[in-house]
Automatic annotation (TrEMBL), chain A:
Catalyzes the condensation of carbamoyl phosphate and aspartate to form carbamoyl aspartate and inorganic phosphate, the committed step in the de novo pyrimidine nucleotide biosynthesis pathway. One of its GO terms (cellular component) is cytosol. The keyword Amino-acid biosynthesis does not apply. Heterododecamer (2C3:3R2) of six catalytic PyrB chains organized as two trimers (C3), and six regulatory PyrI chains organized as three dimers (R2). This is Aspartate carbamoyltransferase. One of its GO terms (biological process) is amino acid metabolic process. PANTHER family: ASPARTATE CARBAMOYLTRANSFERASE, ORNITHINE CARBAMOYLTRANSFERASE, MITOCHONDRIAL. Coiled coil: none annotated. It catalyses: carbamoyl phosphate + L-aspartate = N-carbamoyl-L-aspartate + phosphate + H(+). SUPFAM superfamilies: Aspartate/ornithine carbamoyltransferase. It comes from Thermomonospora echinospora. The lineage of its organism: Bacteria, Bacillati, Actinomycetota, Actinomycetes, Streptosporangiales.
TrEMBL record, chain B:
It comes from Thermomonospora echinospora. Its cofactor is Zn(2+). It is an enzyme of class 3 (hydrolase). Its EC number is 3.5.2.3. InterPro entries: DHOase, DHOase/Allantoinase_Hydrolase, DHOase_cat, Dihydroorotase_CS, Metal-dep_hydrolase_composite, Metal_Hydrolase. Substrate binds at H59, L60, R61, N91, N277, H308. One of its GO terms (cellular component) is cytoplasm. Catalyzes the reversible cyclization of carbamoyl aspartate to dihydroorotate. One of its GO terms (molecular function) is zinc ion binding. Belongs to the metallo-dependent hydrolases superfamily. DHOase family. Class I DHOase subfamily. Binds 2 Zn(2+) ions per subunit. This is Dihydroorotase. PROSITE patterns: DIHYDROOROTASE_2 (PS00483).
Length: 313, 429
């Protein structure tokens, strides 16, 4: 594996399978009475968050702590620029503290690439602007695999604001690597102009795609997109691209419904769909910790086995 | 003071070796076996002699951002690049929108003495796009401004643009437009296309440039004025300009060295050294720009030399400043992209980098053929060596060169400004 995890494209098929297999092993720890492994004892992981994201931060924090790493949370409200300290100076500070791994969340696409130039430790992208969110893609793939088995040939439909979605970008890349067939469904305004260069299919018609889907992943759509004329009204968006009970009824029996959260219930997903047995939304949260443990272990853990004996204090 | 120089065996515009006698600021004679009493002899064996280069688009940053560049440091960089005249863009602090500011910049250029500095006047007050600046006062000032531009900002209001085009006819001025439809480029970070889609960076679509160029060509035709299109970057823009020229309309255009050599694939690492406005485009655009420069659809190479301090580029992409320096590498980039590809010869380079830009700027003492009686503005250029670009040795105060680390051909050996060497043996005098 590469030293950093910045894009889902950094992972070969073997890398991705190794992460998923390792996550599967590590998931067993969640069922133990003591959920802690000594694997990363003495290593320091910095959670560097320039953007509020409590759910992603606590997921990484839990993952690092279960591996016995020391965790430093470094939250910078707003952009580094508004704070007056540059990303570079923040990076040099972390470097001086001896961070072995830096988990970065930033509103600017590419910020993790820049950080990787300035720190020696591994950089893990926890979401950068509208670029990528590779650990989300890993936890999504992990969730799909647990429900459906091998992903090769599986049909995954990703619905919503693809243009602004880092989740969609990482999922398209990773799922393609794993051999799944991805179809993006969105109004044309919410797809990149060059989406035809991506390794996936595109449709504007959700109803046509649903019956063939093994997985339907709904993306959060922000109401303010309406003001920039990406779609006329929230109601129209919901009618054309929302997943309601009628649409779910057209899915195959085994098909699952995913959402990276946070959801807009009643906009892109109906409440009864979000809470139905097909929904993996809560599982995704739990699986996020396992997937991130696997990433931290593989990037920082060196040669020690992932699972030793339980730590007793 | 200009001495007397005999340049021996230079290939004038790449032709057969000949001598040039420079005396009293003029080219006194060209031919074989020239000599003059007391003259300093310069061995130009293997060197190409070109007329002093003229840049239509230079950011010298003074007044206001002397940390990035000054008139002195910028003109030293220009001389090292073979330039004998530059047009200093108006987006300084304060903006060059009054006779007072343009005269100050012009005077600083005279004092520095490395090349002629012709200030560009702002089209609108404060380059805010609302009210015309005092264009006539700038034209009548000691700086004799003929090129007006709100560069960095597009004169997007069609009425203001029309009026500006009409108004400058009174003193044979030209409006140099930074063509960028503002609504289509809100928050834009790079060329909109395959790379922006992958990188998740807001796109700057080609249509935002092309739509303004089309409108401005039609306006210029309607009022019979001169339009100059700054830093053309797309294949579509080339087609529109070619069409406008075919109508006989008075439209000229420039292309930057970086748009002739680099495409948007270099953005993939998110290094803001490649962030520029207009953005680097696709390989197809680069090809179209080269051919347009070769066939004369694009009249001139203009550097858009845009110095920025280190901290303006050592940031995340979105926070970084737009712009690249280019004076000291322009001729090498043109050799690489145009000469070595067989698209242009040395007379063509003289035309696109000296004659035509001088004509567009209405500079009488610049851009003249290397013939007896012309002002002795001469560059001696060695096309043979290939070196890796290292900005640490640049005369510019700034280091934001997108060519750093690239191996490029050629080296400016000497530059003469009205018979006085500003560069000899590659060193500033």
């Amino acid at each position: 594996m590469k030293r950093h995890l910045i894009s889902a494209a950094d992972l070969t098929r073997d890398d991705a399978l190794l992460v998923l297999d390792t996550a599967e092993e590590l998931a067993q720890v969640a069922d133990r009475s003591i959920k802690k492994l000594p694997t990363l004892r003495g290593r320091t992981v910095v959670n560097l968050f320039f953007e509020d994201s409590t759910r992603t931060r606590i997921s990484f924090e839990a993952a690092a702590k279960r591996l016995s790493a020391d965790v430093i949370n470094f939250s910078v409200k707003g952009s580094s620029v508004s704070k007056g300290e540059s990303l570079k100076d923040t990076a040099l500070t972390l470097e001086a503290m001896g961070a072995d791994g830096v988990v970065i969340r930033h509103s600017a696409s590419g910020a993790p690439h820049r950080l990787a130039n300035w720190v020696r430790g591994s950089v893990i992208n926890a979401g950068d602007g509208t670029h990528e969110h590779p650990t989300q893609a890993l936890l999504d793939a992990f969730t799909m695999r647990r429900r459906l088995g091998d992903l090769a040939g599986r049909k995954v439909t990703i619905v919503g604001d693809v243009l602004h979605s880092r989740v969609a970008r990482s999922n398209v890349l990773l799922l393609h690597t794993l051999g799944a067939d991805v179809t993006l469904v969105a109004p044309p305004t919410l797809l990149p102009v060059a989406v035809d260069t991506w390794p996936c299919s595109v449709s504007y018609d959700l109803d046509a795609v649903l019956p063939k889907s093994d997985v339907v992943m709904m993306l959060r759509v922000q109401r303010e997109r309406m003001n920039a004329a990406y779609f006329p009204t929230v109601r129209e968006y919901s009618r054309r691209y929302g997943l309601d009970a009628d649409r779910v009824a057209r899915l195959a029996d085994h098909a699952i419904v995913m959402h990276p959260g946070p959801m807009n219930r009643g906009v892109e997903i109906a409440a009864e769909v979000a809470d139905s047995p097909r929904s993996t939304i809560v599982e995704q949260v739990a699986n996020g910790v396992s997937a991130r443990m696997a990433v931290l272990y593989l990037l920082l853990g060196g040669s020690e086995p992932a699972i030793g004996k339980e730590v007793s204090h | 003071m200009s001495g007397t120089y005999v340049i021996k065996g230079a290939r004038i515009l790449g032709g057969e070796p000949a001598d040039l006698l420079l005396r009293d600021g003029e080219i006194a004679e060209t031919g074989r076996g020239l000599a003059a009493a007391g003259a300093e002899v310069i061995d130009a064996d293997g060197l190409v002699a070109l007329p002093g280069l003229v840049d239509l688009h230079t950011h010298l940053r003074e007044p206001g951002r002397e940390d990035a560049e000054t008139v002195e440091s910028g003109t030293r960089a220009a001389a090292r690049g073979g330039y004998t005249a530059v047009h200093a863009m108006a987006n300084t602090h304060p903006v060059a929108d009054t006779a007072g500011v343009v005269e100050q910049v012009w005077r600083l250029g005279r004092e520095a003495g490395f090349c002629d500095v012709h200030p560009v006047g702002a089209v609108t007050q404060g380059i805010a796009g609302r009210q015309l600046a005092e264009l006539g006062a700038m034209a009548d000032s000691a700086a004799q401004v003929r090129v007006f531009s709100d560069d960095g900002h597009c004169v997007s209001d069609a009425v203001i643009m029309r009026r500006a085009l009409e108004y400058v006819k009174a003193f044979d001025g030209v409006i140099a437009q930074h063509a960028q439809e503002p609504r289509l480029t809100e928050g834009a970070q790079m060329n909109e296309g395959e790379v922006s889609a992958a990188l998740g960076l807001p796109g700057w679509p080609a249509v935002a440039e092309e739509a303004i160029i089309a409108r401005d060509c039609l306006l210029a035709a309607h009022v019979g004025s001169r339009l100059h299109v700054c830093h053309v970057s797309t294949a579509g823009s080339v087609e529109i300009i070619r069409w406008a020229k075919s109508k006989g309309w008075r439209v000229t255009a420039e292309v930057t060295p970086h748009h002739l050599l680099l495409d948007d694939a270099v953005v993939r690492g998110y290094d803001p050294i490649y962030k520029v406005n207009p953005p680097l485009r696709t390989v197809d655009d680069v090809t179209a720009l080269r051919h347009a420069l070769a066939d004369g659809t694009i009249d001139a190479v203009a550097t858009d030399h845009a110095p920025h301090p280190v901290e303006a580029k050592e940031t995340e992409w979105a926070a970084a400043a737009m712009g690249m320096i280019g004076l000291e590498t322009a001729l090498s980039v043109v050799q690489q992209s145009m000469i070595e590809t067989g698209l242009l010869d040395w007379p063509g380079v003289a035309d696109r980098m000296s004659y035509r830009p001088a004509r567009i700027g209405r500079l009488n003492g610049q851009g003249r053929p290397l013939e007896a009686g012309a002002p002795a503005n001469v560059v001696l250029y060695d096309p043979a060596p290939r070196t890796v670009v290292d900005p640490s040795g640049f005369a510019s105060k700034s280091r934001n060169s997108p060519f750093a680390g690239l191996e490029l051909p050629g080296r400016v050996v000497a530059t003469f400004l009205r018979g006085r060497p500003t560069v000899l043996e590659g060193k500033l005098q």
